[in-house]
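Review box. Two proteins, two foldings.
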Amino acid sequence: MKKHLIFLVIVALPVLLQIGTLGAASLSQSAPKPTSETFSWSGELVALDQTARTVTLKSTVVGSALDELGHFKTGDRIVLSWSGFDKYANAINHAVRYDATRKLDERFAFPAEFVSFDATKKYLTFKSQIPAESISKLQPLKAGEWVTATSPHGKSSEAQPIVAIRPYNEPASNS
């Protein structure tokens, strides 16, 4: 009986270990991978400068950004990182000074101009360029209304931080 049990352990253990290894490999291969080249986020409209093609927005701040944003002055160029997954972001969770010598290659991040930070209400006000074709969509809006913006992941966000912006309740176009 004892020999039979030892034989089972010697034969079964390597088989079980192999099955476990294959299962882990299959899980890692089937883990969801980010598929979108862009992400959407929302903010409150503060101002639209049609001539300069810029928008000033307020967005919620969470995490380490609550401590980091107190060190910036109006006009500072910063990089905003957002909490998000795949193609949706919810709040700004990290902010650092923009450094033109470093390539911006992280997901959910883009450069912006710092305007102000309200630590009590946990809102960051920032300014960013927008595409010319987005201006007509924002013209009817008043300060305080919400918008949904789309930004690219990675390096392309440096050249164009916002690739589309629309009123919050307007459906995204499928084009």
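Next protein.
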Amino acid sequence: MNKNLISIIVPMHNNSQESIRRLSRSINRQSLTQLEVVLIDDASEISLINNIDIFFNPYIKIVKYRFKENMGAGAARAKGIELASGFLIAMHDSDDFWKKDKLKKQVEEMKEFKSDIVTTDHIRINANGKKFIKTPSLSKGCFKIKNPVVNSSAVIKAEVAKKELYPLIRRRQDYAYWAMLANKKYNFHNVKEYLVYYDASKNDTLSRKWYVKNIYYNFLAHRFAGQNFVFSIFFVIANVLERVFRR
């Protein structure tokens, strides 16, 4: 494990060249330069991963892996964590974007607050292009109702990420992972500055059928996180009610 290197895990599936350019701009502009990008292609129909190195600064280490079959984002992140060689692991979904001091400020506050996982405030961009500044609540019990962590905002110690297996469920695997770590009493900290642009446009246009299926995956997430059957059902119902009243 390289004690100066930060590994950035990026799951990919059918990405356009433009989305790859945007991803590379997000990473290339970081003020910290000892970076490793672990790109996991989840069996794209037309894969651009072989020639992707040209988009990144030459000092950035590139690690590439391609699944032969579509395995889902959970499996892609799990493989990325396995291949990562840095002392810290940062999650970066390919449709989101970082501000230039994002990683630098997280490393500083991780040391200051002796945290295992550090997130940041983020700007949520919806399907209409409207932007909302969001501050995640990381108070005790916050993960029981919903997932407060935007995946692209999270940096985690590699020793924790490699010890605690990433869930392989098709959806809500990020919720399951962060909730599980919270239940195991790992220390979360949030940088109170918006350093991530989170593209929520796809979520805003999803069908009602998708949300019905998501209820099942929320149940699986709670079970993975360590809740028993009864409490998992209770928290799923609470999440549905929270969404209804929020509207």
